[in-house]
Structures are given as C-alpha cells and as structure tokens.
Amino acid sequence: MRGLKPTQPEIPQIIPAGTLRHLSPDEIKPSTNNPRMLFDPDQLDELKKNIGEHGVLVPITVYQPKGQVKFSILDGERRYRCVVDLTKEGHYGKDHKPLKLPANVVEPPSKIAGLLYMFSIHNFREGWELMPTALSLRIVMEDLGEQDNKALTKLTGLSEPQIERCKKLLTFPERFQEMSLDPNPATRIPSNFWIEASPVLDLAITHVPTINKLGRDRATDKLVEKYRARKIKSVIHFRRIMESYELNEDQPNTRASVLRRVEEFFLKPTLETRQAFDEFVIEKKRVQSALNVCEDFLKELGKLKLTYTADDDERRYLREALHRVHEYCKSLEQALRGSDDPEVPHD
Amino acid sequence: MRSLFHILKAVSRFHDYGPQPVTFSRTIRWIKQFQKQDRKIAGHLLDKIIYLSEKDTRKILLHQNKVLMENLAKEGLPAKKLVYLQTDEAGSSSPVMLSMIRNEAGLQQRGCKLLDSRDALSINKITNKLEEGALIYIDDFVGSGDQFCSAREAVQKSVVGTFSEFLLVPSICEEGYQRLIDLGIAVYAGHIHSRAERPLHANSHLMQAADRIRLVEMCKQIRPKTSLGYNDLATMVVLYRNAPNSIPAVLRGSDKQTPFYGIFPRYKDLPINRG
Hints:
The complex is a heterodimer of chains A (347) and B (275). Chain A has 347 residues and is of the alpha/beta class. Chain A is built from 16 helices and five strands. Among the domains of chain A are: 16-109, Alpha-Beta Complex (Conserved hypothetical protein from pyrococcus furiosus pfu- 392566-001, ParB domain), CATH 3.90.1530; 189-317, no CATH class. Helix content of chain A is 56%, strand content 7%. Chain A has a five-stranded mixed beta sheet with strand order 1-5-3-4-2. With 275 residues, chain B is of the alpha/beta class. In chain B, the strands form two sheets. In chain B, strands 2, 3, 4, 5, 6 and 7 form a six-stranded parallel beta sheet that branches. The A-B interface holds A 26, 28-30, 32, 63, 65-70, 72, 108-111, 114-115, 129, 132, 135-136, 139, 174, 177-178, 181-183 and B 71-72, 75-77, 117-121, 124, 128, 131-134, 150-154, 156-158, 160-166, 182-184, 186.
C-alpha cells in the first residue's frame, strides 16, 4: 500500500510457511532467467567469493509448487547460482560437507504476487520482448482493477512510457498480438511495429476515406504484408509518414498530396516507405538548421556570461525558461535515439 | 549365414518403420554396401537398435501418463489443472504423440487442456485462468534436450501462476534426462537411453574398438558434418514413425539416399520421387 492511492487494491503478499530448511542445490529448481543477463557479472563474482568464504548467510526464499519435487526460488537466484558454481568447482562448506543454502520455505505465491515478482526481475533484463510483458500487465490491470499509469509504475517497476507502450500493444486485436509472440524470431513481428504503426493507422483511418472504409484491421493487415515483403525496412520509418503530414501543417496542398500518398502506400504493396515519403521531408536541411540553432543558442547564451542575478523574480523566470529548454532538448534527444536503436533496452 | 539371420530378424522387428518399411530386399541392399568382412558388424549394429513400434509407443505413453496423472491427483492437481503441450508443429512427432494419448486416455473429456507450445496467447490465457497446475510436455524422443529446452523457454514467457513441469516421452537419452532433471522438470519415460547402449558412441563397449572405428569412418564419409548424428549422440533408438536426427549416418544413409542407402532414413532424407 505504501505510496499508492487509497483506492489501490491490497497487493498480495508472500505468506511464510514458517519453516527454515537447509537445501542442497539439486533440491532447487533454477528459474528460467539467466542471471548473467539479469545481474552485473562483477557483482555476481564478488558474491560468489563471499559465499565461498563465509557460506550463504541470508536465507533464500523458496516454495514448492504442487506436484513438483524441487523447490522453486522466489528470492535468492543469485545466491543459488553462486552455490551451484562453487559446487561444480569442488568447494565444500566450513563443515567439509557439500554446500547448502538456508531457505525460508513459503506457500506458493498467488498469481498476482508471482507476476509482480516477475516484473521485478525482468526490469533488469535487457532484450525482453515487450508483448509478453504487455500480456502480464493486462492481468495485473484486470485483477487489481488498476489502470492508472503512476500506480502501475509503482506496482510493476515499469516506467510510465513502458506502461503506455504496453497499453498501446493491448489495443491491437489478439491475432496481431500473436504475431509478436511467434517463437521464431525470423517470422516474429517486433512489438515496436505496432507502436510505431499506431499513429499512422490513426491518420489513415481519420483522413483517408478508402482506408476508413477498409477498416482498421484490414488496414493493419496491409502494413503487416508490407513489412513481411520488406517494403517497410525499419519500423522507425513509420515516423517519416507522420513527419510528412505534420511538417506540412501550413501547406494544405502538400498535406493533401501526403494523404494521397498515404492511401497509395496502404494499397500498393510494392511501395516502400522512404520511396513514398522522402520527398515530403527535406531532412538534411532541417537537421542542418537544427544544428545551427543549437550552436547559436549556446554561443548567444555564453556571451551574456550570466551566472548570477539579484532579482528573485528574474531569476525564477530564467530558471523556468531554462528548464523548458532542458525538457524539450531531453525529449528531442530521446526521440532521436529511435526505437530501433540497439542501446534502447526495453524491447 | 549369420548375415541372413540378422536380415530376417531386422525384417521381423522393423517392418512397420514409417518412412520406409524395412523389407528383405531393402535390408540386403543396405548390408551389401558394407565390405564382406564388415557385414557381420553391420548386422550386429542392427541387433542393437532399440525399436519402438506404434504398439510399444502407445503402451509406454499411456502407462506413463496414467502414473503421472495419479501422482498429480494425489498432490492435489486433478485433470482439469493439467495442461498438455505439444512441443513441435502439427504433423511432427510431438503432436502425433499427444493425439495418440488424447483419445485413449480421454484427456479432453477429463478436463485437461491441450495446447501448442507456440501458441503463447492461449498458454497465457489458460494458465491465467487456472492459476496453478502442471505443464506436461509431450514428445516421442529427446536427445540432448536442445530442441525441447528451446520450446520450453518460449512457453515459460507466457505462463502465469504456479505450474510444475513434466515431460512425457517414450525414450530419452541420458544426456537430455540429466539436463531436464537439473532444470527441475520431472521426466516420465519408458526408456532412458544410456551411452553404453550405443555401439558407435565413444563411451560404449558394445563393439570391438577396431570395428567401431571402421564404422565411424564410414559414417564420416556418408555425412561428414553429422556422422554420428546431432551432437555426436550416436543414438540407437528408432521410433516407428521416424528415426531421430541423432542416429549414426550409416543407419540413416545419405541425403536423398544417394550414394549410401540407409536402413532407417528420416522422411526428409528420402528422394521426392520415391514412388
């Protein structure tokens, strides 16, 4: 309940069964997560060294699912993996017996408690596909009756933009969701496809009568077909379509041409994204102008040599203005990273 | 004379092998590819095949499934809490095994759920609804466990709730068995295929070293990259509907069965116009 809205449903807690046991590693079932992907290898090595010297001091938390002989780990995957490694390397405990782990045995977690634990693990994980996360988030939202992004952030540890992205994925019909759950990476449609395609679909449905008549699902099918035919070479290219429309806000004739091209783009399978929209986005000139603006801004502001002002109001106004500049630049820099950027971990 | 005995025995044991039934003439054709002094060894190799006919396979699966369901019921998991998962696409071995026991064990009538391991959305929905239960993977053979683990990893991403895991399989290699036990997956198998049972495996003493080396050399000539099968497992289990990809090349034959004619080709090894 800490820090959540008063209407927030009770978060299910793990119920201790009140037994402390000492388990050998082969009595424990490893989780399906690879700790080398989840945790800093240096920290893991440090922990292993400590356990090698002193043994496991803090008990891990385990439970036993019905029908399973081994115990599943709820908390303490790192300690367990270290003991497994040490055992393989031939280490023994101080009593010269095989290493064991002290373990608090608890009741199996409820579905929601298990899901929230899964979220807490996967927040560390890079390369986790967004669609399975979205499905889990849907269960959390349905079971706890919670839709508010801030509350969901506190529950799951996902950032608000991640939650927003998950929600967007969940607006697509299941047959499209399934395409992002395909175990074969070669045929899987990346989750980002739906997120980037969404505003383009909105645009086409709202402003292009033939696409509106086609309906959202069939229009989506057209985009999937194009993607599979490699006529959308990167999902980030969808942004080009939106840029083409938005940049020409003051030019009705060009906007009309963009909408005609949008129609053609949907209906002509062979038309590639950049081939269709590059002419509406004179990118090089814009980028150069933006670079010049940045240079001029820094130069002009530097010239003022402003580090102090005695007037409190002026100081406040200036700080607010700088804050707005800072926020805008930050959001622009993030947007320019792009969803296909390998540095972006969430997908 | 001794070769004739092996041939007759092979025909009697392997006559219902799906991809290419083992007949008298086919066995003679296969054995004649060996040099005269090696034909006895080839016959000896055939003797060591562990063949699971359709009847054997069905019997093992039904029995293991019965035991598993009884054990789970004792643990508080009735049939309606059990999710059976085929681990491969339709038409391949896993779905065939599942359909084999589905009717005879009355899985659906008893309330069990039957799913495809690649159907992530259904796995998510069903496990969300059940909240706890058992996932029972089913296949006909597990070698190293690589393929199984890959399918299982995909399944796990969609599972919600607390589920124990089991594998129902007529035969499994000791390598795969150990790997699955380490992962906490309980294996219900009719047969655990040890290395010692595989004459061409380096750890086996079923064959004289010199004979083994000669046959291994032949395997290398037939299939240079997978001479002893996937991961060099050199397995000897053959199922009525197909041989695993881990059998030695001398049994499987060349791709399209040319130049070396196999006694247990896989479906994909056969020439398309085989008539």
